[in-house]
Design brief:
271 residues; alpha+beta; 3-stranded antiparallel beta sheet
Length: 271
């Protein structure tokens, strides 16, 4: 985030929170688009995330559907605009990210495995959220979301390459498609102080997605933490009765990790 962007975002936040003394800072862990700020009053803390109008409105809608209909733990997002800037606002979720807990060695391997079992419970709920809730809007199909996100974080060439991979990876039966959070990573998973799932953030990634690809994206992180994705698939199928395309998931995990590494390396070279 440039100094100019920071000042512009701060001005929008202060205009929105007029008559309230507020301190504004960047989060400890910054996302690939670097578009999030934390605003703190003497009583509350809020997340402000800047983006385009369509995505901000979509995130607010999915927040309501996830929370109110399916009881999936995500923040209550509201959509706002100020002088051509569009942003979502929600209360800061209590706890810390799973990523932070792992880096600080505050959590055991058994606790990590238990958290992933709790994630699977919520993942199963997401697989029931029909694409009609977004009017099956092509803009919010995973391959189009992946292209836009990669173009903003990296460049157009890589974005077009990744879009093709994402399109192929998300092919499959229509009843395997739902509005699923496609990046249930440790950075987007909030946990409680006693090591249980508190909820998920970054609803940009809640898009129309094939469940097997979304499971693969989650399983990629699980594997990178040193665990066997077979046990993750076993637990999911045994507890939900929902069948996965196991060979497809196992094949995609390696490709997904390679793609993430490639995008990360490219971004580091640009800095």
């Amino acid at each position: 985030m440039t100094d100019g962007q920071f000042r512009t975002y701060c001005n929008a936040i202060r205009a929105h929170m007029a008559n309230q003394p507020v301190e504004i800072r960047m989060p400890e862990i910054r996302g690939s688009l670097d578009n999030v700020l934390i605003a703190e009053t003497d009583k509350e803390q809020f997340i402000f995330k800047f983006g385009n109008d369509e995505t901000v409105q979509k995130n607010a809608k999915i927040s309501r559907i996830y929370r109110n209909v399916y009881r999936i733990p995500v923040p209550t997002i509201t959509a706002h605009a100020d002088n051509g800037l569009f942003f979502e606002k929600y209360p800061l979720m209590q706890g810390q990210t799973l990523y932070q807990a792992i880096n600080k060695q505050q959590i055991t391997p058994n606790q990590i495995q238990q958290i992933y079992r709790e994630i699977l419970v919520e993942f199963a709920k997401m697989t029931r959220v029909h694409p009609i809730q977004l009017n099956s809007n092509p803009q919010f199909k995973f391959h189009n979301f992946a292209r836009e996100h990669t173009a903003r974080a990296n460049n157009e060439t890589l974005a077009n390459i990744f879009m093709v991979f994402a399109y192929v990876a998300n092919m499959g039966k229509s009843n395997d498609t739902a509005i699923i959070h496609s990046d249930l990573s440790p950075k987007n998973t909030i946990i409680t102080d006693d090591g249980h799932l508190a909820g998920f953030v970054d609803l940009d990634s809640a898009v129309i997605c094939n469940k097997n690809y979304a499971f693969c994206a989650m399983a990629s992180w699980y594997k990178n933490l040193g665990f066997d994705i077979k046990e993750l698939m076993d637990y999911y199928e045994e507890t939900t009765g929902d069948k996965l395309s196991r060979s497809r998931i196992q094949g995609m995990v390696g490709l997904n990790n390679f793609g993430k590494k490639l995008l990360w390396q490219h971004k580091q070279r640009r800095k």
